[in-house]
Design brief:
There is one protein chain. The chain is of the alpha+beta class and 719 residues long. Helix content is 24%, strand content 29%. It is built from 15 helices and 43 strands. The strands form ten sheets. The protein has a nine-stranded parallel sheet. It is globular.
């Protein structure tokens, strides 16, 4: 083991000769140090770390996973998995996010930079032991010390680099469905949004837009004159977001396939021939995204669609998902043939059944696939968790070459730590289950801790059938998540906001309108979090140290000023809320009608009608918002509103930028710094405007701790 000092409080322990994942950007200097802090280490054919927990220790992080925000009590296996049934017993979902914070007797962060399988047993086998098994002998392990939880996360963000900024339109509402298969259907969906006066920025193209599920093709039958169609939709105010799948169809004459073969850009099998697996189009090859040349080749393929006016993509099936390989299929068929006319006993029947049930995403297949990096052959299984990350990196690097200063919408299903620099994630194939609203809520801060700020779930649930109430409640939560997309699977009930009765449409309209009104706040908080290496959605424990706040698993902090307490139970017309301090409650129905109530520190039963969204403004904090519009482009921010809850003083920095370019990286952004101070009989407002030329007026509503309200309008100095 070699030890490196990355930073005063960050130490890297290197075992063997790890594969460079580019998860961490800082190398560090060699350091003389005996043993590893906190953990006992055992090395053999694997690396095993153990830590003895105190009875009250909590464990945060691990990104996209089941169970609570506090991960104690479960086993989690990092191995990117295409599994569409996210039941509580699942140990692996699509992402591999090996960062966690142990919080209790000691407080420290741990990042296991190992791209193969890592298992985290967090007090499952032994209630007071964390046991981590790294499935190999080469890994970098980082330990991050710090006082506060947020401080540890910030340090981690410093070494994994600045996150991805989507364009501002990607903060609008987005509508998806597997599938809107043709131009006519999409136009119909767009018209319905317009007719129902529901704001929307993007409509998705799932696999059926392609010709035979071939990446970078568009079906001419279903989309005659695609570029004109993209343009027409833009004129109506909608952007189209096509899906790109990892597998490239094997088909003579198909350009992407032919180029991939000629360039040697595909992953190979043990004999050096392109590896064959089957996904949507039947047999495919997988681009070798770990190989920089293949990555560049694939990344530049996005240009075709970009030239046709596309500005956003979602990368899918990039665990990579494998329906079957010839090996698995042959095994199954042989077993089936042997079983014909047999009297199968228990073992042989289950063996037969399993041969088909476990045919997809089989370890043996991943173990038979190879990458080629720097002249070396690397077994896929050992670097499995990098595949989706590197596919997304391929796209982002391609965009950088195609349109260097433009921001694209890009998110992926599979991911690994470090991918947040290139794109966001969605949490894959959830279900229209109430439990999945809560899972979504718990996962958001864990994803944030792993760098993934641009994240969200399929609102309304992907699989199964949503009822009106579920969609309303889920929308009322998702409106706070940066990626706000309703998506559902083929065969399931339609769940666009207008697919139910009029009252439902009305409630969802108001929730989506509220999202658009909140964009000044959401965008500002998101971008500041990126630039300051901070989180956007946090557990209460990250701001409040009391024992109750530390255990709250169903409320969240959103940005600097808000706490939310969503409803995630069917037929509930209220819920219990914990208030770690006095807060100002605004039950939002139509956001233009405002009324507030002070809620005192403590436990509270809150009634919440189906049409209501409870929003808590924290003490000495403020919420800034504007008016909604039919999409982000027409938002008019000449007038903004601030609701503040002031005990003595509050400060807020309202951030804005062009929302389209990367100029914010050159500090080309604007800020309005607002401070409010409670004076004897009055509130004093100070405003410092740094170059914002859009905002002309801010209307303030200020409530003090006793419930005194003052309203003021401040006209911003002409510049
Ligand atoms: C996968 C994706 C899902 C998509 C479907 C068809 O299941 O996770 O979002 O709709 O494939 O492309």
């Amino acid at each position: 083991m070699k030890v490196y000092r990355i930073h005063e409080k960050i130490t890297k322990y290197r075992f063997g000769n790890p594969f460079p994942t580019d998860g961490v950007l800082v190398k560090g200097d060699p350091w003389e140090k005996e043993g590893m802090d906190y953990f006992q280490v055992e090395q053999g054919t694997e690396i095993r770390l153990t830590y003895k927990m105190d009875s009250k220790d909590m464990v945060w992080g691990l990104g996209e996973n089941q169970r609570g925000m506090n991960k104690r009590g479960g086993i989690y296996v990092s191995y990117c998995s295409d599994d569409p049934r996210h039941t509580p017993d699942k140990k692996s979902l699509y992402g591999a996010h090996n960062f966690m914070i142990v919080d209790g007797r000691e407080r420290f962060g741990l990042f296991i930079d190992y791209p193969g399988q890592v298992a985290f047993d967090v007090g499952f086998s032994h209630t007071d032991v964390i046991e981590i098994i790294i499935d190999g002998t080469d890994a970098d392990i980082y330990i991050i010390d710090g006082e506060g939880l947020r401080e540890i996360v910030r340090k981690f963000f410093h070494i994994i680099g600045e996150g991805y900024a989507p364009p501002k339109w990607a903060f609008g509402y987005q509508q998806s469905r597997w599938s809107y298969p043709d131009a006519k259907t999409i136009e119909g969906v767009a018209e319905a949004f317009i007719d129902h006066d529901i704001p929307c920025d993007a409509i998705y193209l799932d696999i059926d837009y392609m010709e035979g599920f071939k990446d970078f093709t568009v079906s001419e039958d279903r989309f005659p004159d695609f570029p004109r169609f993209v343009e027409k939709m833009r004129e109506k105010g909608f952007r189209l977001v096509p899906i790109i799948d990892a597998g490239v169809k094997i088909e003579k004459g198909y350009g992407v396939y032919e180029e991939g073969i000629q360039g040697g850009y595909f992953c190979t099998d043990g004999e050096g021939k392109p590896f064959v697996a089957a996904v949507w189009p039947g047999k495919v090859h997988f681009p070798d995204f770990l190989n920089p040349e293949a990555r560049r080749w694939f990344g530049l393929k996005y240009k075709g669609l970009i030239d046709w006016g596309i500005e956003g993509f979602w990368n899918d099936m990039n665990e990579p998902a494998i329906f079957y390989t010839e090996r698995g299929l042959k095994k199954g068929i042989e077993l089936a043939k042997q079983s014909e006319n047999e009297n199968l006993d228990m073992d042989s029947f289950f063996a037969l059944k399993d041969a088909f049930i476990h045919m997809s995403n089989h370890r043996e297949d991943y173990q038979s696939m190879y990458h080629h990096v720097d002249g070396k052959q690397v077994n896929h299984h050992e670097v499995h968790n990098l595949y989706g990350y590197y596919m997304t990196r391929a796209a982002a690097e391609g965009f950088e070459e195609i349109a260097p200063n433009k921001r694209f919408l890009l998110f992926s299903r599979a991911s690994y730590i470090g991918m947040h620099r290139f794109g966001g994630i969605w949490t894959g194939d959830n279900h229209s289950w109430w439990e999945h609203i809560l899972l979504n809520l718990k996962m958001m801060p864990s994803l944030n801790m792993c760098g993934f700020l641009y994240a969200g779930a399929d609102t309304g649930g992907f699989g199964g059938d949503a009822n009106a109430q579920l969609l309303i409640r889920w929308t009322q939560f998702s409106l706070f998540t940066p990626l706000f997309r309703n998506h559902s699977a083929i065969g399931g009930r339609r769940q666009e906001p207008f697919s139910f009765d009029q009252e439902t449409t009305e409630m969802i309209r108001k929730a989506i309108q509220f999202r658009y009104a909140l964009i000044p706040y959401i965008y500002s908080e998101y971008m500041k979090a990126l630039l300051h290496r901070d989180m956007y959605m946090l557990p209460l424990a990250f701001a409040y140290e009391d024992e109750i706040s530390r255990r709250v698993e169903n409320q969240l902090l959103v940005g600097d000023g808000l706490m939310i307490a969503p409803i995630y139970e069917e037929n509930a017309l209220g819920r219990y809320v914990w208030l770690p301090e006095d807060m100002l409650l605004w039950k939002v129905d139509d956001y233009r009608e405002r009324s507030y109530e002070i809620k005192r520190k403590g436990h509270l039963y809150l009634e919440v009608g189906l049409h209501e969204i409870p929003v808590f403004i924290r003490k000495n904090k403020m919420l800034i918002f504007g008016n909604h519009g039919r999409n982000t482009e027409v938002l008019d921010h000449r007038e903004l509103y601030v609701v503040a809850f002031i005990e003595d003083r509050a400060q807020y920095v309202y951030y804005d930028d062009d929302g389209l370019t990367k100029d914010y990286k050159k500090e080309k952004y604007t800020e309005i710094r607002i401070s409010i101070e409670r004076r004897e009989e009055d509130f004093e407002i100070k405003i410092e405007n740094r170059e914002n030329r859009q905002v002309k007026r801010i209307h303030f509503e200020m409530v003090d701790i006793h419930g005194n309200i003052a309203k003021k309008t401040v006209v911003l100095a002409a510049q």
